[in-house]
């Protein structure tokens, strides 16, 4: 795992149904993200914020809201993430809404193709984000990035990075899902997407869930985590525009992050959908930073050996 980290702020809510995620990058900075990472001996370079078109707040056109603007933001992000990976650095994308997973993950997939690495994507989210324009009346593209990455949608979006589809559904593990539309569920099943929903986590526990989601990761695997803050239960993380009750608790989320850290394969990260306009005293940003710290070595483990063998 690289210990050279680049923070990339992407201040836009272009794909969302509520305004405010554009302020997410600054909230994460205010919550001390760079300082917390540096306390673990990691060199952090804050690249500042990317620039892109303003949010025109228009209704959907042909089923997609703000398509040209979404393309512009994701193309810029794709190039920024790819450039950091080419330098041997770990990009942490500070969102912004989750439509940005398209630019970020398409860049990671491109890097893996060039470097001959296997890709594994952990999608931590309350939503499957596997919608298409025919399935969602809102046209909000933050509900579509996984489907777009897998090739479902207009070429302007599915072709970012020059390869369509950017990824195969088999590389994705979705965790924490608890809000899926009926048509979307059908598409997810057809794609063969591996989903560990909250029912699974309730029945099997977070430890078993993560063992399954991380199975098969080896020394040649690039592990990308796309962390939508609405993954967390809104009782502990109110600062998101798409809250769904019944998410992972603080302890479950900590275990999830610590088990990812244990693999030592994390190579890129998205932190998405943090909405300070809906938060209480930056509480959700502080929690997100706390959990990100667990991805980079803060551990509650006191014993010398793990019982997971």
UniProtKB/TrEMBL annotation:
SUPFAM superfamilies: Arginase/deacetylase
Pfam families: Arginase
Pathway: Nitrogen metabolism; urea cycle; L-ornithine and urea from L-arginine: step 1/1
Signal peptide start-end: none
Free-text cofactor note: Binds 2 manganese ions per subunit.
GO molecular function terms listed in the Swiss-Prot or TrEMBL record: arginase activity
Alphabetical keyword list: Arginine metabolism, Hydrolase, Manganese, Metal-binding
Cofactor(s) required for function per UniProt: Mn(2+)
Catalytic activity: L-arginine + H2O = urea + L-ornithine
InterPro entries on file: Arginase, Ureohydrolase, Ureohydrolase_dom_sf, Ureohydrolase_Mn_BS
Highest taxon in the source lineage: Bacteria
Enzyme Commission number(s) from the entry: 3.5.3.1
Family: Belongs to the arginase family.
Protein name per UniProt: Arginase
